Amino acid sequence: MNIKARLSVILCVLLVLIPVILPAITAGAASGPSLRTTLTDNAVQRGSKRTFDVWARNAAGEKIIATVKLNGRKIDPTWDDSEKASYTLVFTEEGQNTVTVSASSDGGKKKTLTYRISYQKAKEGEKIGTAVWSVEAFTVGCGYIIAPVEMPIYEGETSAEQLIRLLHENGLVCYYGGTVKSSFYLAYIADGTAAGEKYNNYMKSGTAKKPRKLNLSPSIPSLLVPYLEDTMTFFDADDYIKNWRGYLGEFAFTNGSGWMYCVNNVFPNVGFADSYLSDGDIVRVQFTLGYGADIGGFGAVGTEIPDADTQPESGYFAVSDKDRLTLAICRAIASGHIDRSNVRSAYNAALTVMASLNATQSAVDAAAEKLNRAVENPSSDSSSETKTDPPRETDPPATTDCSPESSDTVSTTEAPVTEPVTSDGVSTHEKTETSGSVTQPADTTGSTGTASAVITGIDDGKEEASKAAIYVIIAVIFASVAVTAVLCLKKRRSDRTERKP
């Protein structure tokens, strides 16, 4: 068979296969919507409220509207933006409750996720679990303001109320807008000795126990400086010392600074007052200099910020999940073995990794594993290494283990009586409740939130398998074409050789 004939055969084969390949590719592209949430199936719920996030996408990756129902009753989102939607479940029926999350797209294709949640009702003020909290200033080189510590969760308590209790128990206060029940905005964390009832028109949270000062000596990591110089309209590395000493918050150092928080490595698109924690949650309150782009949370701030088009969509750099390391540090502090040489060494190494804003996930996981092993097997000798974490006025009790409590054994301890927290706040303040920076105006719905979550849609795996199969088919076809072409060339060369005299 000559070359022309062979090429004709190849073209015929491709023409025959194209009608087979194209529908397969189309089916893969239109395999229906994808769903993921931060809910877990077969969970036990003690609190009457639970906040969770939903990411819904069509096959093209575009956000679509999801439908959430609790026991058949539709739930409206607490907040909905261009990336995800946040919902608050309110449980009233003890026993098993059913939550369904569904979305339709791509020609009517529908995907539904179903969760069964067992609600065990608690009394108002009853302890329903524990959460690990930390307050971090790694972006300004100041480490932990409050190192990871376990805090009880009480029925009916918002995250805003728990945050204020955390600060007061550790000798500090905050200044905020809104109220602890609605539109709470964390403007500043301040010295516990701060006297003013208001600061820049924000309300003081109350009185700290054993007041202490922040005692910060900022030194912005060199990694951040070029990013801040490129993206911020205002940047002064000495601004805190000159203008904000004792008050760390919005607009210190840059126009993009402020406080943000993440729960289980997800930056919520709702503020503290609309966030209700569950047993085992890990909450990291973090200071940002760049609208969250320096801590992995830029998407949670929104697009209603100055020069939004100049800000990086995915942050300045990749940021690893440090929840496991946070929990390991909490356990090390609470273990009572922090003075043992191997524990101290692993602990200091863990703090170094925490301070590395762009630490790789493998480095973070290795540090957590090393610290956990050291705590489980403490050496007998004491350490002479210098403690590198900032001092805290109140350390967690030695009996705290920083482990999620079993829902079957949660005690019925009443919430402790704490100093009153002003609830009326600044009612006329225009800033709405936000998890991030300070420039999101009221009633804005254009913010974006990008974060990882627990992937619960089992159909996503089928979709990936379908795509993989399509790629294999295409690869086989092209390989066949390539082999045929090579054979044709060899045949042609052979024919030329035979024709030579």
From TrEMBL:
<feature type="domain" description="Transcobalamin-like C-terminal">
    <location>
        <begin position="231"/>
        <end position="288"/>
    </location>
</feature>
<dbReference type="InterPro" id="IPR027954">
    <property type="entry name" value="Transcobalamin-like_C"/>
</dbReference>
<dbReference type="Pfam" id="PF14478">
    <property type="entry name" value="DUF4430"/>
</dbReference>
<protein>
    <submittedName>
        <fullName>DUF4430 domain-containing protein</fullName>
    </submittedName>
</protein>
<keyword id="KW-0812">Transmembrane</keyword>
<feature type="transmembrane region" description="Helical">
    <location>
        <begin position="468"/>
        <end position="489"/>
    </location>
</feature>
<keyword id="KW-0472">Membrane</keyword>
<keyword id="KW-1133">Transmembrane helix</keyword>
<feature type="region of interest" description="Disordered">
    <location>
        <begin position="373"/>
        <end position="450"/>
    </location>
</feature>
<feature type="compositionally biased region" description="Polar residues">
    <location>
        <begin position="434"/>
        <end position="443"/>
    </location>
</feature>
<feature type="compositionally biased region" description="Basic and acidic residues">
    <location>
        <begin position="384"/>
        <end position="395"/>
    </location>
</feature>
<feature type="compositionally biased region" description="Polar residues">
    <location>
        <begin position="400"/>
        <end position="426"/>
    </location>
</feature>
